TrEMBL record:
This is Down syndrome cell adhesion molecule-like protein Dscam2. It is a single-pass membrane protein. It comes from Hyalella azteca. SMART domains: FN3 (SM00060), IG (SM00409), IGc2 (SM00408). Residues 481-491 have a biased composition (Polar residues). It holds the Pfam family fn3. One of its GO terms (cellular component) is membrane. Residues 283-381, 386-489, 494-606, 610-705, 803-894 form the Fibronectin type-III domain.
Length: 1219
């Protein structure tokens, strides 16, 4: 029956949003089933077919997928497509490809055996040869249910579509539907960011696409921009692409116009917003934090921070610098630096000159203002001359003594601070110009002649020595190399390749390799071979697990020394088949070196001794059991024993038997006649031959078989905590009774059955097993066997070997890195001590151990100045002892020692130099320094927590602030740490931008005038008032003294009596001896003018040149000067008097003007000024009254302006001596 098509799912018009998925069903029914087809109306009014998405030629099951290509001629990757509308998953989708090559799909039969398909497999025939492909942004077609499907509908899909159903019956069905795509706004911006200079016009353009009506509006800060005088909005429409545009123009922009602008596009389907940024550029602001980061004699390295206020990229920096002293100079020098960097180096400057530097930033708009000026002084030049007259001599095998003269004065170029002593090892193939020198800082620059010692060298080695002088700015050229060889020493290593071989039963041949020259430490003059018997195990194991020592064994004690100049040696007179420990050491003129590691050497086998004990007992009336011991000296491995016997009176009735091995030591002889004397003897056999006959054992066999013991007995040694088996094998008829005694105390009496005990037990064959023996188990054990015909017994002497007693440990010598120890044990436990283990650790460190073989040991490689805990355990063949008592030992060395302030710190202009090299190491190398600073009442703040032990540390960026500043420098070494506090002068404190203050200051340098800063004015006024008060008190004191001195008689030496005194004798033991001590007061201030102090007495004279003690009744003695014996600053004592009280006057030069050898060059010239300090010694518990005054010119000034008779010549001579 034929039925025309009827709509089952009639298509309808569709209106969809852009990029959404759309499915339009169209299905009909009839008989036969109708054929469904979709067509789309083209621009020319024709209907083009819409192809099916899946192939009808092949049906894919639900889990299957197909391959999809990314590009032409490439395979497609597996991907699965899921249809949101249908229930099938046959659609092509993209895996890693960004687009498909075609929109069209064809019904094409594919080979089911193919695993992948090329793009051409999916192209329709009319496109197979076409190179025109389009990006597949959305899939359009019909699915398996003939529905029209759009995966992401586009505006191009909009139009009319025709769905047809035909089956050949009737006219068929068809319906035209319209597909309408609703497109919301889309924005396209040409320039999202616009840059413009201040005062210019800025234009922002916003373009949008979408369904009309489409509107655009500009806004900023959520406010719409109207067309005002400065804001102009123009709307335009593009005829080609149908887009709408809105142009925003801002005339004469300013910095306030910078920011974000929003363009909003809207239509009935939605809205979109685009954000534009407008950047308005202006000249940069002022450069921040300009500072001198590094300075040299002819360059300055500058660093700064970019301006905080800038409206555009900085294109360059202009660095302007000029000499400060050139008041009427021409245009300053300018250097341009790229805008991407914030540092530069000024080259070609003059040494030791003050420069004023300022920096300005520039961009394409223009140049900004210059920063605040920074003033800095260039450094000195390093020396250009080398030290003279260098002399080097060998002081020992590991050290050299070096002497030299300073460079000529005209080549020093500043104050010499010390010297670099360089040393290099010279090899045969080395040349002077190829040597690599290791330099050490030595000496000081104050003297003309210098000397030093170089240690830690290789013995008998040539070294080249050079010396370089250095000042605060570096080192000069080296001196001419001088080559010297160190003295010979003992060899540092033993000979290698030591070998030995036994050449006879009593001789060994030893050979070794010659000692390398690098290890000889000199010229090898001979070798020494030392041999001692090797320590062998004290015990051997038997089958039942017990332990015992071979009976009758002995150890050879042959040892000795052989010296030779060859690399071979022969040793004779040794014991046969004995092991020896052999060591070889080499010798130079300085002595023998360490021996080589011991090697074991064994002599060849010799003829063994005869078994030294033999025992024979009657086993029955016709049998004899004979047993024996091993030879005392086997001289080889016993391979068998030969048992010989002879029946007395029967010449031919003799016999012998050879055992199958060397372990069996008994034999039973049968079928012997009764009532006849039988003689028996035994021989031991080794590879070298048969031993002599043993002693003869004789017995006569009778009808009565008495009790007999055929175990031999003897001395036994055993290790503790083991089991020991003592055998007692018996014979006799009837069976004898056996009993055991220990030191005559009965242990067991056996009547046929064994009985177990707590510490011992008797086995079934009458052997006594001692369990877990200790020293109390030792002694004599006797086994007795008896029957009615005879009684026999044997005895064992048991020695139990135990670990040694705890060693006694003593320290005999300590150095900075080693400890020498001596130890001994009072009880070796019966077995020689073979080795010892030494354990050691620091207070908080991990425990380490080292093996010790001699009674003396040196523990090296220790930390300097550190405390160690040590204990020892010694060992023998049995085990290890308990540990010795723990001892404490400290290596030599102490924490670092701080130098005084006037040596350690120099302040020059706007920088501070710390001379770290002047710290005394205390015998332990300084590992690092820490530097802290304190401003006024502030807390200590870290400046540098890890400063390497260099010669100097220079800090710049100082400015004159009148605030008390303190520095705390801590030096660390392995022995501890030492902290010293130093003060900076009040008229040269640290600036805000220096490294000391950067930890707290976050802003740039302060450029206001000093008198405008209350932080400076307030302390200055306070100091001024204090100084005025002190001056008034000083004037009153001087006036009172003048009135008292009006009646004083002048002495013959030209001095008033109040400054005369008795001589301080060197041998006087009084409280004044405290004044002779050199107290390192590193926190003392040296202030010009008059000052009142309340410090300890030692502070006033610690670095004095002359010390005076005086009273009213004393007279001046020009020979009374007692000079302190200090190498760096000799001091003297002087006495004077004032009234009936004791006064002390201390005369010393200003520390910044003293010329100590280790002191750095000072910026203040040596003008010959001295400070005279007078104070009155009060009773204990009361402070000393002190007055200080500085005499600027000793040639014209008077002592406190009161000593009118103090001759100028005498003061000048005294000051000359002080220099």
């Amino acid at each position: 029956m034929h039925v025309p098509p009827q709509w089952q799912d009639e298509p309808h018009d569709v209106s969809a949003t852009h990029d959404s998925a759309v499915r339009v069903p169209c299905s009909a029914q009839g008989s036969p089933p109708p054929v469904m087809a979709w067509r789309k109306e083209t621009a020319k009014g024709k209907w083009a077919p819409v192809h099916a998405i899946n192939s009808s030629a092949r049906s894919f099951s639900d889990p299957e997928t197909i391959w999809a290509p990314r590009f032409q001629n490439e395979n497609w990757q597996t991907s699965k497509f899921h249809d949101n509308f249908s229930r099938r998953r046959y659609f092509l989708t993209q895996s890693t490809a960004n687009s498909f090559s075609t929109l069209h799909h064809i019904n094409k039969k594919m080979d089911t055996s193919k695993k992948s398909f090329s793009k051409r497999d999916f192209l329709p025939r009319e496109m197979e040869n076409s190179a025109d492909t389009r990006s597949l942004s959305a899939i359009m077609g019909t699915d398996a249910e003939n529905s029209l499907f759009f995966s992401a509908i586009k505006k191009t899909h909009e139009g009319r579509y025709l769905c047809q159903a035909t089956n050949g019956v009737g006219a068929g069905l068809s319906k035209i539907i319209s597909v309408l795509v609703q497109e919301p706004p889309r924005l396209s911006s040409e320039s999202p960011t616009v840059e413009v200079r201040v005062g210019a016009a800025a234009t922002l353009k916003c373009k949008a696409f979408g369904d009309p009506p489409l509107s655009l509006r500009w806004s900023r800060d959520q406010r719409e921009l109207a067309s005002l005088s400065r804001f102009i909005v123009e709307h335009t429409t593009d005829v080609k692409d149908g887009g709408s545009a809105a142009r925003l123009t801002i005339e004469k922009v300013g910095l306030q116009d910078s920011g974000s602008y929003r363009c909003e596009a809207s239509n009935p389907h939605g809205s979109r917003t685009a954000v534009f940024k407008l950047l308005v550029e202006d000249v940069p602001g002022e450069v921040q934090a300009l500072r001198v980061e590094e300075s040299g004699s002819r360059h300055l390295m500058l660093r700064w921070r970019p301006p905080t206020e800038t409206a555009g990229n900085i294109t360059s920096y202009i660095v302007r610098h000029s000499l400060q002293q050139e008041v009427s100079s021409t245009t300053p020098t300018e250097v341009h630096v790229q805008g991407t960097t914030t540092h530069t180096t000024l080259e070609g400057l003059l040494p030791a000159s003050w420069y004023t530097v300022a920096v300005a930033a520039a961009n394409r708009v223009g140049r900004g203002n210059f920063s605040g000026a920074v003033t800095h002084r260039t450094e000195e030049e390093k020396p250009s001359g080398a030290p003279r007259d260098v002399q080097v001599t060998a002081a020992s095998s590991t050290s050299l003594a070096v002497r030299w003269e300073s460079p000529s004065p005209e080549s020093r170029h500043g104050r010499l601070l010390g010297f670099y002593l360089g040393i290099a090892r010279v090899r045969d193939s080395s040349q002077d110009d190829a040597l690599s020198y290791n330099f050490t800082t030595v000496g000081s620059g104050g003297d003309t002649s210098h000397h030093s010692a170089v240690s830690g060298l290789v013995p008998y080695t040539s070294y080249s020595v050079v010396v370089r002088a250095f000042n605060a700015q570096g080192a000069g050229p080296p001196s001419e190399p001088v080559t010297t060889r160190t003295l010979q020493d003992r060899p540092s290593s033993p000979p290698s390749g030591v070998r030995c071989a036994g050449v006879s039963p009593t001789a060994l041949e030893i050979s070794w390799q010659p000692l390398p020259q690098d290890d000889a430490n000199g010229i090898v003059v001979g070798y020494r071979v030392t041999y001692v018997p090797a320590v062998q195990s004290e015990s051997s194991h038997i089958k039942d697990g017990s332990s015992r020592v071979s009976l009758g064994a002995s150890r050879t004690n042959i040892s000795g020394v052989v010296e030779t100049q060859n690399v071979t040696a022969s040793i004779d007179g040794l014991a046969s088949w004995s092991a020896y420990s052999v060591q070889v050491s080499a010798a130079t003129q300085a002595g023998y070196g360490s021996p080589s590691p011991p090697i074991l050497c064994t002599t060849k086998e010799g003829i063994p001794d005869a078994p030294h004990r033999i025992r024979a007992v009657a086993y029955d009336r016709n049998s004899v059991v004979v047993s024996w011991t091993t030879p005392r000296h086997p001289r080889g491995r016993i391979v068998s024993y030969v048992v010989n016997w002879q029946v007395d009176g029967v010449p031919h009735d003799t016999g012998s038997h050879r055992t199958g091995d060397g372990e069996t030591r008994y034999y039973k002889i049968r079928e012997l006649p009764t009532h006849t004397l039988v003689k028996l003897w035994v021989q031991a056999e080794s590879a070298a031959g048969l031993s002599p006959d043993s002693p003869i054992a004789s017995l006569t066999l009778t009808e009565e078989v008495g009790a007999g013991i055929w175990s031999v007995g003897g001395s036994v040694s055993a290790a503790w905590r083991t089991d020991v088996l003592l055998e007692c094998r018996t014979a006799g008829q009837p069976q004898p009774n056996v009993s055991w005694t220990h030191d005559h105390q009965l242990l067991h009496s056996k009547g046929g059955h064994g009985q177990a005990r707590v510490r011992w037990q008797v086995t079934e064959n009458n052997a006594l097993r001692l369990l877990n023996v200790d020293r109390s188990s030792g002694g004599q054990y006797r086994c007795t066997a008896a029957n009615q015909f005879n009684t026999d017994n044997i005895h064992y002497n048991l020695t139990v070997l135990v670990p040694p007693s705890p060693p006694s440990l003593h320290v005999t010598k300590t150095t900075s890195s080693s400890v020498r120890l001596q130890w001994h044990v009072t009880d070796d436990g019966g077995s020689p001590v073979t080795a010892a283990t030494l354990y050691y650790r620091t207070e908080l460190g991990d425990t380490k151990e080292t093996s010790v073989k001699d009674s003396h040991a040196t523990l090296a490689g220790l930390e300097c100045g550190s405390r160690y805990k040590l204990f020892m355990i010694c060992h023998n063949s049995v085990g290890s002892s308990d540990s010795s008592p723990v001892i404490d030992v400290t290596t030599k060395g102490s924490p670092p020692e701080a130098p005084p302030q006037f040596q350690f710190i120099t302040q020059n202009g706007t920088q501070v130099t710390l001379y770290l090299g002047l710290w005394q190491s205390g015998g332990c190398p300084i590992t690092h320094f820490t530097v802290e600073r304190k401003l006024g009442d502030d807390h200590w703040r870290m400046v540098n927590a890890e400063v390497a032990p260099t010669r100097t540390l220079t800090v710049g960026g100082l400015e004159p602030l009148h605030t008390v500043r303190l520095l705390r420098v801590t030096a660390h070494n392995s022995a501890g740490a030492t902290a010293a506090v130093y003060s900076l002068q009040a008229d040269l404190a640290l600036g805000v931008d220096s490294p000391w203050s950067r930890a707290t200051a976050g802003q740039g340098p302060h450029t206001a005038a000093v008198w405008q800063d209350m932080r400076v004015v307030a302390p200055a006024l306070s100091c001024l008032l204090l100084l005025l008060g002190a001056a008034v008190k000083l004037l009153l004191c001087i006036r009172n003294r003048r009135s008292r001195l009006a009646t004083a008689k002048p002495s013959s030496n030209g001095l008033n009596s109040y400054i005369s005194s008795d001589v301080i004798q060197n041998d006087v033991k009084t409280d004044d001896d405290n004044f002779k001590k050199k107290v390192a007061n590193t926190s003392r201030h040296h202030v010009r003018g008059v000052e009142s102090r309340s410090s300890a007495e030692a502070e006033y004279h610690a670095y004095a040149d002359v010390l005076y003690k005086h009273s009213a009744s004393s007279t001046y003695d020009p020979e009374a000067e007692h000079r302190f014996q200090h190498q760096e600053h000799p001091e003297a004592a002087l006495k004077a008097g004032c009234g009936d009280q004791q006064f002390y006057s201390v005369v010393y030069r200003q520390p910044l003007r003293r010329a100590y050898p280790d002191q750095a060059a000072s910026a203040v010239p040596n003008d010959g000024s001295v400070v005279i300090q007078t104070y009155r010694r009060e009773k204990p518990g009361r402070k000393n009254s002190t007055m200080v005054a500085e005499v600027q010119d000793v040639k014209k000034s008077r002592f406190l302006e009161t000593s009118t008779s103090f001759e100028d010549r005498e003061i000048y001579d005294r000051d000359s001596r002080m220099k």
